[in-house]
Structure formats: C-alpha cells, structure tokens
Amino acid sequence: MPIIVRLDRVMADRKILLKDLAEEVGISNVNLSKLKTGKAAAVRFSTLEALCKALNCQPGDILEYESNE
Predict the structure, then answer these.
(1) Using alpha carbons only, what angle is made at residue 17 by residues 21 and 33, rounded to the nearest 5 degrees?
(2) Quick one: pLDDT at residue 68?
(3) Where is the HTH cro/C1-type domain (predicted)?
(4) Closest to 24 measured CA to CA, from 57, 47, 8
(5) For residue 30, how many other CB atoms are within 10 A of its CB?
(6) How many whole angstroms separate alpha carbon 47 and alpha carbon 55?
(7) pLDDT tens digit string along 5-57?
(8) What is the pTM of this model?
(9) What does the DSSP assignment read for the chain?
(10) pLDDT at res. 6
(11) Which of 4, 7, 24, 37 is close enough to 64 for a disulfide, judged by CB 3.0 to 4.6 Å?
C-alpha cells in the first residue's frame, strides 16, 4: 500500500500514549490502534483534523505517500 501511516512516530515524538490520545481525540483505543498500525481502511477528515490538533502537527506528518516504483 503506497500510503504509510506515521502516527506512531509522531506520538513518540510528542511522548503521548495511545489511550491518552484516543481519549483526547474521542475515538476508541481499538480504532486508534488500527490507524496507528496502518490496518485501518480509511480515516475520516474529522478524525485526521482532531489528531492534528491534539498532536500539533500537519496531516503530512501522519500520512506519507510512497511510490511502488
């Protein structure tokens, strides 16, 4: 999959735990874990916005495109 989720890296940089971020963003630990590990099939813009607000980052810090070439 050419879209890579870098949420784990951003969370580590900010020293925030999954449970704390999930609570702040308002999603379940399970759904945030799926997103963090790249197993989520989709992410809502509202969730992405909440993550960026909580982590004080840009969407490009969390999601990255990598060509298969």
Answers:
(1) 70
(2) 78
(3) 7-62
(4) 47
(5) 9
(6) 12
(7) 999 999 999 999 999 999 999 999 999 999 999 899 899 999 999 999 999 99
(8) 0.90
(9) --EEE-HHHHHHHHT--HHHHHHHHT--HHHHHHHHTT--S---HHHHHHHHHHHT--HHHHEEE----
(10) 95
(11) 4
